[in-house]
Fold this protein.
Amino acid sequence: MSIVTIRNVEFMNNPARFSDVYRFRVTFECIAPLKDDLEWKLIYVSSPGNEELDQELDDCLVGPVPVGVNSFEFEGSAPDPSKIPPEDVLGVAALILTGSYNDQEFVRVGYYQNTEYDNEEMKETPPPKIMFNRLVRDISLKPRVTRFQIKWDVSPPSAASIGAAASAPVPSANDLDDGMEVDGSGNKPNGVS
């Protein structure tokens, strides 16, 4: 069972220019207090067949993390155009948000990003040399989420300590003793002699 579950990732500037920073809000739930920070990374994948070309756009530590629903805003740099092969600039790339705890990745949220020119003429007949200042990006709002089992250094609350199972027992009418005062006045309830 995961101690941390992502509830939502909201892109705050989508669509945007290719050179704009990525701005988004991550909302997650934590069901037990964590001793250490969570690490989040944003990775741009331009060439799926070559991991050496992946660009880590930014990372951040979030903590201490209290029990409950938490959120934070994350801003990551735009990818470095010089590290993207020209044939991989236009079209679909991947944007990956990872969450880790104690160097163990527990979640990976992947998005498709489409990059194209900002006008129809250039879309139909791209210039021979890429004009990055004319590119726009659009991130798909349908993520692919992969969860990984890791060793958390805390335990989730047990079922016995949650909800009604932890409440005090409530006596029924059958549990009342015949000589028991019910309202504190010395009077017995109707029907009890």
